[in-house]
Amino acid sequence: MDFLSRDEAPFTPEQWAKVDEVVVQTAKQVLTGRKLIHMYGPLGAGVQSVHIDDFGAIGQGEVDFFGESDGPAVKTLNRRFAEIPLVYKDFSLAWRDMENSRQLGLPLDLSAAANAAAQCARKEDELIFLGNSALGYEGLLNVAGATRLAKQDWREGENAFLDIAGALAGLTGKGFVGKFALVVSPDLYMQMQRLQPVTGLLEIERVKQLLDGNLYQTAVLGSNKAVLVCAEPQNMDLVVGQDMITGYLGPEKLNHAFRILETILLRVKRKDAVVIFE
Questions:
Q1: Residue 144 clears pLDDT 70, i.e. is over it
Q2: pLDDT at residue 57 is higher than 80
Q3: Are residues 206 and 90 part of one domain?
């Protein structure tokens, strides 16, 4: 990976390993989309585009004695190619801090790297859930063709449980099976922290039981937002060209500039696998 220019940085292999550890561990703490969406790749940093297939609504299978029924085949109804965007965040380390670490044998403070990794991870989740209208990318909360449901007030009664159970029944009724996952904004997550009458359970515990524990929250959704998906790879995946990594940009007034980068793209193949609560 010569494009990262890591050999030109004043780092030992051990220091680079520490940078990578900090970046990866920080990103894992922030990332939500990767917890539920299957990753397709990494394909390599040089892969710049990928095809996106739309299968539309898939009908039921056929049954007869001689196999002569002419039911519709499952096939790609529409294919387009999309560029895999670059997500990145730069950070800088002061030359004096690096010299201090080298001369005294002290650990190098990588707080700047950790903060940059957190922002890069947040931008990845924004691309997954919100898309990017300026670049023409859709996210799970605005993908055209998704099912949209008007939700009730989740602060009252069993409204959250009933809304989610109804949406889940709708997906299973369409034939979706496998991993169902719900992602909510932090305010809705807190609204489900209520004891339910008679059951003695928190509402959030009942919802998690419906989803086999696949309930997540992320601040990128803003407020009063939720999306339910059947997150199997035949329905959607996250295309990864270059996974998150750190490169060296070079010296700037004796200080040292770095870039955390990745190339990713959400690919929704069956839009009816997404339910948006409004």
A1: yes
A2: no
A3: no
